[in-house]
Write a structure and sequence with these properties.
Elements lengths: L6 H5 L2 H10 L15 E5 L3 H11 L4 E6 L9 E3 L12 E3 L5 E2 L4 H6 L3 E2 L2 E2 L4 E3 L4 E3 L8 E2 L12 H12 L6 H15 L3 H6 L6 H4 L7 H16 L8 H15 L9 E4 L3 H16 L2 E4 L2 E8 L2 E8 L5 E4 L3 E4 L3 H4 L5 H6 L10 E3 L2 E7 L10 E3 L6 E5 L9 H4 L7 E7 L18 H13 L2 H4 L7 E6 L3 E4 L4 E4 L3 E3 L18 E3 L13 H18 L19 H12 L10
Parallel strand pairs: 1-2, 1-16, 2-12, 9-19, 16-26
Antiparallel strand pairs: 3-4, 5-11, 6-7, 8-11, 9-10, 13-14, 14-15, 17-25, 18-21, 18-22, 19-20, 20-21, 23-24
Helix pairs in contact: 3-11, 3-17, 5-6
Amino acid sequence: MTQRVDRRTLLTSSAAVGAGAVLAGAGMAPGFAETPGRRVAVLGGGMAGLTAAHELVERGFTVTVFEPSAWGGKARSIPVAGTGVGGRADLPGEHGFRFFPGFYHHVPDTMRRIPFGSGTVGDNLVAASGGKFLRAGDHADAFVFGIGPDPAQILTVDGLRRFLLDTLGGHAVPPHELTYFVERLLVFLTSCDERRLGQWEKVSWWDFVGAAKRSGPYQKILAAGLTRNLVAAKETIASTRTIGNMGEAFVYNLMGRGNDGALDRVLDLPTNEAWIDPWMIHLRGLGVRFVSGQRLVRYETGAGRITSAVVADAAGVTSRVEADWFVSAMPVERVVPTLTSNVLALDPGLKGLTSLQTDWMVGIQFFLRDHVEVTKGHITFIDSPWSLTALTQGQFWADRQVPRDYGDGEVVDILSVDISNWDAPGILSGKTAKECTRQEIADEVLAQIRAHHTVGDLLPEGIIHSWFLDPGVQWDAAARRNTNETPLLVNTVDSWSKRPTARTKIPNLLMTGDFVQTDIDLATMEGANESARHAVNAILDASRSTAVRATTYRLYDPPEFALLKQADKLLYRLGQRNALDLL
């Protein structure tokens, strides 16, 4: 059964989707059609859970998805309750703006299999063509990224060196330090996989690029700025392997190599309208059952397997869920409490999850009374202590007029901002974001943005109608600090071995989520989607299914560097440096 929806229908359908999900949960336990060997309980309704459900139901499995709070997880948009008047929808808040670089393949593939109007959800991806890195004070803007050389051009080390120097040049970093940084990038780009895992996984990015011995601009712009703003990771603790892999993906993305689509893509509607609601409607039409308000409490085991999952509602009332397969689709901080002694006895390696670290990357939206024309793409505020990035959203919503369709008619545009560093002192009070009240966070973010001259004049007093901070961030008045219900995994030095694969040692328990070992290896929607596909393939293998395996993709690896990497593999086995690693 294929269900199609259009944009106008979805503007008013979010409530119906939520209600349907609740109604689908009535009489939940055990709640599975009796199809021996093919009953799957998916525990979590975010990116990983919905992807797993999608891949499994298409292959004939009976799937029920349990979610304690919000369908779509961190990928969803969040209507600001009570803001819509006169027949308009509530203003769309979100956990953070959506970002779909060209090197994403798994998520766009899923989107293209979800009906939407006369096409698919994939049609809602549109190009953001003018990303800018802005400076504060008297500094010239740092970078304006665009597409690089012709993808068909033969790639050489010298050619890549020139491209990187041109792309990253033109700012306050001394030329000799920029050259050094590019040389370090080239060392990583020509390193074999064995060196990346055996050597660079055990070195922080800060140490790899020699930041401690370089100038302030080098540290601020190259070592820290690019890392925090593009990857949302602390450069002093993040693994060089992870940051390098993402840096490599961005470089080839800029060069148009291995791209799924445009260099940078965003959605042309709020996320729930463009993606999450149509997805759930489609999955429900395929037979997936959604159960709202149920969180996993623990697993029960027997004969070396998971026999059932105990779930609880908001009041603490528990039910037992029986299935043939259990797919954990929760973030790592929610998985850890479920690793009870009986589970760890079956797979002791899962204990490594307890040592993984998380950090905060959370969004705030400013609803504006006028348009702010900065660039048709993402904006990075390179001198903001809180590592701010932003996007003006109205320009991409071709089928929507914000004052006509959302809020009270006074909101014209939305400036969506991500805060990536919650531990740095601000410029107003000197407090970190974790120490600021919600109002103080809004005031501080505006002050840091206005300090960047390209945008500052475009945000005069009076242009701010209202603002919305991710509800996962809550102020604890007694502790005078914030808490956060939605942190992100940080790929710290030498943490790869502590993370599980999708296939655990427990035959019928699969792990999915952005902490699972994947090729993209970063806490992203893409990583969560990829992990779910690996879990589905593990189920297909274990059940000896003849169904076609879920498609998985690998990050682009230029054929021109194959010989260099083969030579580096030999050097690494001999205990020697990469051929370009001269320092």
